[in-house]
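sorry to bug you again but im stuck and you know this stuff better than me. below you get a single protein, a line of residues and a line of whole numbers that encode the local backbone shape. mainly i need to know what kind of three dimensional shape the backbone takes. anything you notice is useful, everything is just below:

***
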Amino acid sequence: MHAGAEASTRHHGRTGAAGYDAVGFSAPPVADLIFHERSGISAIRHFGLHGSGTCHAASHKLDIATLTLDLGAVGTCAATIDGQRYRKPFRRNQFSFIPAGLPLELEFPAEHSCVGLYVPDHLLAATAGAADRLAEPVLCQPDDRAADLFRMLTREIAAPGFASDLALDRLLASLVHMVTRQPRVRRGQPDRLYIAPAALRRVREYIDAYLARPLTLNELADVAGLSPYYFCRMFKLATGYSPYHYVAWQRLTRAARLLSETATPLDAVAQSCGFANVSHFTTAFRREIGVSPGRYRRAHRDIY
């Protein structure tokens, strides 16, 4: 990691997960610890960084492997992994894997959100017979099956059921197997986004500007200069989200930022994020984030 990157990535999380908290960010991160197992596995829900625009993150050689599932953000991830530089577009349900021991630098949109799973090498080795494949990174690889396994694994550890140990072993083994099957990262330009970058940027900026009021598919398609049917298909191909789910996630992300960064009353947060009322906001937030808005604010108000 060069001196300029090191100087610009001095903010760290305070979640209690050593793998995540060791990463340096160019602005304070907004993140929650989902769980931390005695086995050494931990998971983080990352909502993005304070501020806007392009941000940076960097880590020295971490002693734990990182698996991430992208939840939301449109734009490009520029990564330098072990000295090699790559560029990939962000889409929902993209899967990445960074082996332990590799220095990493990232450039990404501040609003990018993901779930990160940190797994010690001995647990990975116990579930895979292809150790050489686990020494290579995977970056921003779309894979709905891997995304489903990732979510099942995090849910099982956060809320163990009957025979949880066996379920965890099976899910982790399946997920690691998916990692070994992913195409390895390639240097070069981003994949095609399926929609003109300028049109996609206009739509994102429009949603951000008018998030507090109802938005329709027709008006978003007009902003993009496409028919509603074609826009809906191309937007999902480019982002991994339907327009509806993208707007919903942007509302929740803005709400999380307001709760963590400001003392704005809950009714004003709900209104500014486009929710019909506080009850609607609370229900949606608890369903997606796992805690009420008030509890989320109390957990974050003294951090930054």
